[in-house]
Task: structure prediction
Amino acid sequence: MDLALLPPEVAQAHGSFPAALAACADLDGLMRLKGAFVGREGSHAARLMELLKAAPKEEKRDLGAAINTLKNVWEEGLKGRQAELEAARKQAAALGNAWDPDLPAPCPPTGALHPLTRLMDRLVDVFRPLGYHVEEGPEAETEAHNFDGLNIPEDHPARGSADTFYFKEQALLLRTHTSPVQVRVLQRIAAVGPDGLSELERAGGIRFLAPGRVYRKDEIDPTHSPMFHQVEGMLVGKGIGMHHLKGTLAYAMKALFGPGAEVRFRPSYFPFVEPGAEMDVRCPLCGGSGCRVCKGSGWVELLGAGLIHPNVLRLAGIDPEVWSGFAFGMGVERTAMMVSQTPDLRLFFENDQRFLKTMGGLD
Ligand code: DAH
Result:
């Protein structure tokens, strides 16, 4: 439409129509705008109809078509804006009716404990009724606690810098397992108090869990990470044997996986225990018939364990002729992957909420 054909005030009004429309904040305002543009009398449309009437016959057809186009633009615009304002009014009314000052305020989404933390908490809950408490140790450890005190020989491959993160300046390393907490606790409870008795003697024994992060120089892949978690367990008492260890762990696995959980022990070697063992549980996914998780064997390896080596007690200042005990160390990610059927360990560290929220298997 050639705006030059229009009377200047109509052309100007048409130019500002979109802005005027958007500025209408309510239906009353919109009705006023409607009156000014397409109302029966005195509107811009009425003005154009008069113009059409007065136009010479041969111009009427083109002018009429142009005026119609213009009127359509106005009417469509007004209709659209009316629908918007009515919807807004309805929504406001609905909100007004629904607002109940006695209802609790809507809560922002809250965080939740990480699945690995929940699994470690659950293990602690399983052992707490058996008298176990939680002990902690530093992640930046000394060689003395991480290796020497655990009877690990000087030439053991784990001591090499290919497997262990060493700090450059200090004689420290990132602990490669939670077992150094054993050494720290043993040294502490061996220390004699003012009454001439050690904490161990006063308490008649000790039992604890030590959950935490450990580090190894492993490339990240679906089953390895340079940082992962372990839960260490230890009991020191008098006359402790493999039967105590097996009974305790069999009980704990039933508490963790259900009353049908079965365990088996295989002889194994760790320098800080004698005898040493590895414990498997009957695959909780397939029940033992064989699946991807247990690689067809029906069993999955869960932890290392054994009776505390006399050297470990002696090095900490505890008499192995009087005291004995057991220890075990469990991989948390490995257990979590099994329980939740998670095929890739990296999912635990990527903080993808879609994964973390579906960790129902760990609740
Ligand atoms: N520290 C061992 C590891 O990292 C696991 C372990 C084995 C812990 C035997 C123990 C134990 O307490 O008795 O592989």
